[in-house]
Specification:
The structure holds two protein chains of two kinds.
Chain A (H helix, E strand, L loop, with lengths): L2 H7 L2 E2 L5 H6 L11 H4 L1 H14 L3 E3 L12 H21 L7 E6 L14 H17 L4 E7 L2 H14 L4 E5 L13 H10 L4 E5 L4 H14 L4 E4 L5 E4 L2 E4 L3 H9 L8 E2 L7 H11 L13 E4 L4 E4 L4 E7 L5 H9 L2 H13 L4 E4 L8 H15 L4 E4 L3 H10 L5 E6 L2 H14 L2 E5 L10 H17 L7 E4 L11 H16 L2 E5 L10 H14 L4 E4 L4 H13 L7 H9 L17 H14 L2 H13 L4 H21 L5 H25 L8 E6 L7 H12 L3 E4 L6 H11 L3 E5 L6 H14 L4 E5 L5 H6 L4 E2 L3 H18 L1
Parallel strand pairs in A: 1-10, 2-3, 3-4, 4-5, 5-6, 6-7, 7-10, 13-14, 13-20, 14-15, 15-16, 16-17, 17-18, 18-19, 19-20, 21-22, 21-23, 23-24, 24-25
Antiparallel strand pairs in A: 8-9, 11-12
Helix pairs in contact in A: 4-5, 4-11, 5-6, 6-7, 8-9, 10-11, 13-14, 14-15, 15-16, 17-18, 19-20, 20-21, 22-23, 22-24, 22-25, 23-25, 24-25, 25-26, 26-30, 27-28
Chain B lengths: L5 E6 L5 H7 L14 H8 L5 E9 L1 E3 L2 E3 L4 E2 L2 H6 L5 E8 L2 H13 L1 H29 L3 E7 L10 H8 L2 H4 L3 E2 L5 E2 L3 E10 L4
Antiparallel strand pairs in B: 1-2, 2-6, 3-4, 4-5, 6-10, 7-10, 8-9
Helix pairs in contact in B: 1-5, 2-5, 4-5
Classes of the chains: A alpha/beta, B alpha+beta.
């Protein structure tokens, strides 16, 4: 039987711990175990052999810590070759005649990947690929990726293994007591992701004893269609008389692990604290136990870093707003690379109940592959919703799929041969749930039968790649009812036909139905209800629309999916109160003066919504926007600023006032946009947290206040290299630049940036700030000014801008 | 080596609004302003922190001007004073976890003031977790007297010591904390410190 078959049959026995055995043989604390492959090969061989003799069918090479992040490629190669020589020698010497295997052990590389750490995803992939290629050349029977506590790094290692060799790959994660891996990620989300990428087995090792790991393994068994593996610790380490021992005995360990075999556990061994004795006991305990046959749970699952979402059970909301079609402001943000706008769209949709976010960044003049990759990474840093990658550019799709941490929805493929040839290989390689549009070279069929025929063809083609029907959702295409009165009916008929005959899930972009008609949401929401009633699995829609969201919520409530009507009640509470019934009738007489007094108070008190509303009312009442700024908002800000300087008002209050002022400005700007003009802009300021530093809260406060005071701020973010700051200052010919640093270790980067600016952009005044800086320190590194706090920074910027102005 | 490391699960620390406002740079003397979105922020932060610590006991030796901490040597005078009379140390690292950072990043996007409060909540979590850990350690070594915790960066104890600290505690594997090249820890709401241990003095 091949190794793959043995793994799929089970039970299959791995080895136990290595580290503690090496220590017993003299490995010193702090000494790297992998060095012993070179210095003490006979000890390593002996340990492997003991495991084979105890009943391990596969041992893992002593290569856990070998990675180019720690060693040079030459050192890696030497240690790996020596490790395989040890395992091979043990295999030849071992007693039993049972077939024996050697797995190449791959552990974490020791650095965290972006966005949590600084290691680039592709650098991690190429590092793993380097060591895996060496192992494959040394005769590895399979690759065992283990003790991974970050899902992104797990992906990098698995992708590297898949690209570097054709060997089976076993993937095992380390869990905390909360049932999650350290950077987030559950058995269900990891299983979806790893199966999508083609892992031959998934599971868990290290971290905990067998009893504590049992519920985690059961969750794997519930989710997985590939074999599940388990390598627990021998309980927790304890110290007695200066010696370390583990709490779980070999017999208890064996009994607890073997108890999972009848539930489906196939591959088992031990981790820290386990010895050949544990493996011997485990084999005895599992004697005669046979796991039930492997079966696919037949679920359509997508996943983010930490969440798995099943499609086809309850209807799902896919937020459509990150798509520049017909959205001028988003198009501008994408062209400018203003990711904050995109991220805010994501959060707003999530807060309104979106469960998946569609991400489309295609707009003329941008490098779509690079921008989609960046958007995916930045979105995943702030939201844990699964994403639907939406692009017609196959290169952009692949870039995004490579970095997407999870199992994505892929939007889309269709019946055109050329498109299927480009997209199916990507789905096969990276995994994902595919949205398939029922159109082809001849366009969109006008009948339900015609659309179903295309769906069938797509399924046939998918089968050639080994892509299961459960990984495909069909989109029978919403057409505009104003162009064809039959359009909605045909779409719904096609939806039902496809569901009934293929069993696949369905998805629709519902908004299109009302194109060209007034009160679009009314029509759209009823169409959505009809589609849901026809069995729609997911709707691509605008969750910020009360009517559309209402249709979805009501459907869930009316079909018994909303316990205690809680979701409906929350939704109803979010609806705007009708003007006529608002209890403001008595206040109508309040004149404009009252409102503006209220506005000034709202800004001082930091009442955002209030400030926005009062500004709007004042404008409605005929107040001039500019006067409102000059006479109400700025005096309010000044009062707060003075209070801050006098220490009667504190930072959080200052920030709330700034946000309230911003809310008022937004109203004024919205009004002014129609008439061209608004608050006159003062000069341009470029802001950045310097290279190496990731603290940006101080910088963000400065930004907010500067904007309040009318400066046009370009925020370069954090960890910004000197050259990038210079590039922006030159491009914008900014007269003022503000730099922030919090750490003593990043002040040199600040000094370097100041020097570069003074040399190449001598017109620009540089102000600096941050916790480690003082007036003297700032002067020492050559800054033109030091901002003790945010207000001081505003005063400095005003002075610099004025000087600039008077210079002409 | 890893056997000598102890991982402590500390969970989510109860929110302490006074402490949180103090970390948000609002002094205790100032009345808590009602317009601060503290409630919403506490709601948004709930469930995010999963505090964990790892610690290890080391013998402490003195070589002339230098302290041998068992995992590194240092000539720091302020630490030397702090550890006066001690013959052992407990080295620990503690983190509120990655989810806390993500919630902060999210809050910052929508509102800087909320970002500040979320930062403060994260700080209260990790500081509270350190306090809890120290209480547990004091209970664990009832016959020893423990000093206050002392972190790299305090006094003249250099921040570069972080490299040895993080590696001695195998932080990446034990509690998921790594060090960036700038010596910042990731997740950001993390603390490392040294506690001295000495013979308990008679009452």
């Amino acid at each position: 039987m091949s190794l793959r078959e043995l793994l799929r049959t089970g039970p299959f026995f791995l080895d136990g711990g290595m580290g503690s055995l090496l220590q017993a043989r003299g490995l010193k604390p702090g000494e790297a175990p992998e060095y012993w492959n070179l210095t003490h090969p006979e000890e390593i061989t002996a340990i492997h052999r003991e495991y084979y003799d105890a009943g391990s069918q596969m041992v893992m090479t002593n290569t856990f810590g070998v990675h180019p992040q720690r060693y040079s490629p030459e050192e890696c190669e030497k240690m790996i070759r020596a490790a395989f020589a040890c395992a091979e020698k043990a295999r030849q010497k071992a007693k039993s005649g049972e077939e024996k295997f050697i797995g190449m052990d791959i552990g974490p590389c020791g650095k965290l990947l972006r966005p949590l750490g600084t290691l680039d995803f592709e650098d991690a992939v190429s590092g793993f690929a380097l060591v895996i290629r060496i192992g494959a050349a040394c005769g590895a029977d399979c690759i065992v990726i283990e003790t991974m506590n970050d899902s992104s790094e797990t992906r990098a290692a698995l992708l590297a293994a898949k690209e570097a060799c054709g060997l089976p790959v076993l993937v095992s994660n380390a869990y905390g007591g909360d049932g999650k891996v350290m950077t987030g990620g559950s058995p269900a989300s990891l299983t979806a992701m790893l199966e999508g990428l083609g892992a031959d087995a998934v599971g868990v090792n290290c971290s905990l004893g067998p009893d504590a790991l049992t519920p985690i393994v059961e969750a794997y068994l519930d989710a997985a269609s590939v074999p599940v593996l388990m390598k627990p610790n021998a309980g927790l380490p304890q110290e007695k008389d200066g010696k370390t021992f583990y709490t779980v005995t070999a017999e208890d360990f064996a009994r607890q692990v073997a108890a999972l075999v009848p539930k489906g556990l196939r591959i088992m061994g031990g981790c820290c604290g386990t010895t050949p004795e544990y493996i011997r006991a485990l084999r005895r305990a599992a004697e005669g136990l046979i796991p039930p046959p492997l079966k696919d749970p037949q679920r359509t699952v997508i996943a983010s870093r930490g969440q798995a979402l099943e499609l086809g059970r309850d209807p799902v909301i896919i937020g459509e707003r990150i798509n520049p079609t017909g959205k001028k402001r988003l198009r501008q943000a994408l062209t400018d690379g203003d990711m904050a706008y995109v991220l805010n769209e994501a959060i707003a949709q999530e807060e309104r109940g979106a469960q998946v976010l569609d991400v489309n960044v295609g707009t003329p003049g941008v490098d779509e592959p690079a921008l989609l990759e960046r958007a995916v990474q930045e979105l995943q840093a702030v939201t844990d919703l699964p994403l639907q990658l939406d692009t017609a550019d196959a290169a952009a799709m692949e870039r995004a799929l490579r970095v997407y941490n999870g199992k994505a929805m892929i939007n889309s493929v269709n019946g055109k041969q050329e498109v299927m040839d480009a997209i199916f290989p990507l789905v096969k390689k990276y995994g994902g749930v595919l949205v398939a549009l029922t159109l082809d070279e001849n366009g969109i069929p006008s009948t339900a039968e015609g659309r179903f025929a295309i769906a069938e063809r797509i399924l046939k083609e998918a089968e050639k790649y080994g892509i299961a029907p459960k990984e495909i959702l069909f989109d029978p295409l919403t057409m505009t009812v104003s162009a064809d009165t039959d359009a909605a009916r045909v779409t719904l008929d096609a939806l039902k036909l496809i569901r009934e005959r293929t069993g696949c899930g369905t998805v629709l972009g519902v908004s299109n139905v009302s194109f060209g008609l007034p009160s679009r949401e009314v029509l759209g929401s009823v169409f959505l209800t009809m589609a849901l009633n026809s069995g729609l699995s997911a709707a691509i829609m605008n969750p910020l629309s009360d009517a559309m969201l209402g249709a979805m919520v009501c459907y869930r409530t009316l079909t018994g999916r909303d316990g205690n009507c809680g979701e409906y009640i929350r939704y109803a509470g979010s609806l705007p109160v009708r003007e006529a019934s608002a209890p403001s009738a008595g206040k109508v007489s309040a004149g404009p003066a009252e409102e503006t007094k209220g506005l000034r108070r709202a800004v001082i008190k930091g009442l955002c919504r209030e400030a926005g509303r009062l500004a709007k009312e004042a404008l409605d009442g005929g107040r001039d926007g500019l006067a409102l700024v000059r006479e109400e908002i700025i005096p309010a800000l000044d009062e707060v600023g003075r209070g801050f300087e006098a220490k009667t008002i504190y930072l959080p209050q200052l920030m709330m006032s700034a946000e309230a002022a911003e809310a008022a400005f937004t109203e004024i700007k919205a009004r002014a946009a129609g008439r061209g003009g608004g608050q006159p802009k003062k000069s341009r300021v470029v802001l950045a947290t310097v290279k190496g530093d990731v603290h940006d809260i101080g910088k963000n406060i400065v930004k907010l206040l500067l904007e309040n005071y009318g400066f046009e701020v370009t925020d370069l973010g954090r960890d910004v290299p000197p050259e990038t700051v210079l590039e922006a200052v030159e491009r914008l010919r900014a007269p003022v630049c503000g730099l922030s640093a919090l750490m003593t270790t990043t002040v040199p980067a600040m000094a370097e940036t100041v020097a570069l600016l003074h040399e190449r952009a001598p017109w620009c005044k540089v102000m600096v700030g941050g916790a480690v800086l003082t007036e003297d320190y700032a002067r020492e590194i050559g800054a033109d000014g030091y901002g003790r706090d945010a207000m001081a920074a505003v005063r400095l910027a005003e002075r610099f801008a004025q000087e600039k102005g008077s210079e002409g | 080596m890893a056997d000598l490391l102890r991982v402590e699960e500390l969970g989510e620390i109860p929110f302490d609004e006074k402490e949180i406002l103090r970390y948000a740079l609002l002094p205790a003397s100032a009345p808590a302003p009602e317009e601060l979105p503290l409630r919403e922020c506490l709601e948004a932060a709930r469930g995010a922190a999963h505090c964990r610590a790892v610690w290890r006991r080391f013998p402490l030796k003195r070589h002339g001007e230098e302290l041998d901490l068992g995992f590194a040597r240092t000539a720091s005078l302020s630490l030397c004073r702090h550890l006066e009379g001690c013959d052992e140390i407990l080295l620990f690292a503690c983190t509120a976890g990655a989810e806390t950072d993500r919630r902060i990043a999210r809050a910052k996007l929508t509102s800087p003031a909320r970002g500040l409060l979320m930062h403060a909540i994260g700080a209260q979590q990790v500081e509270g977790a350190c306090d809890l850990l120290c209480r547990r350690l004091a209970e664990r070594f009832p016959d020893r007297q423990l000093t206050e915790r002392y972190s790299p960066g305090y006094g003249d104890l250099p921040l570069v010591l972080q490299r040895e600290v993080i590696s001695a505690l195998n932080c990446e594997r034990t509690i998921g904390v790594t060090l960036l090249d700038s010596l910042l820890m990731q997740p950001s709401k993390s603390v490392t410190a040294i506690i001295g241990m000495k013979e308990r003095q008679g009452i």
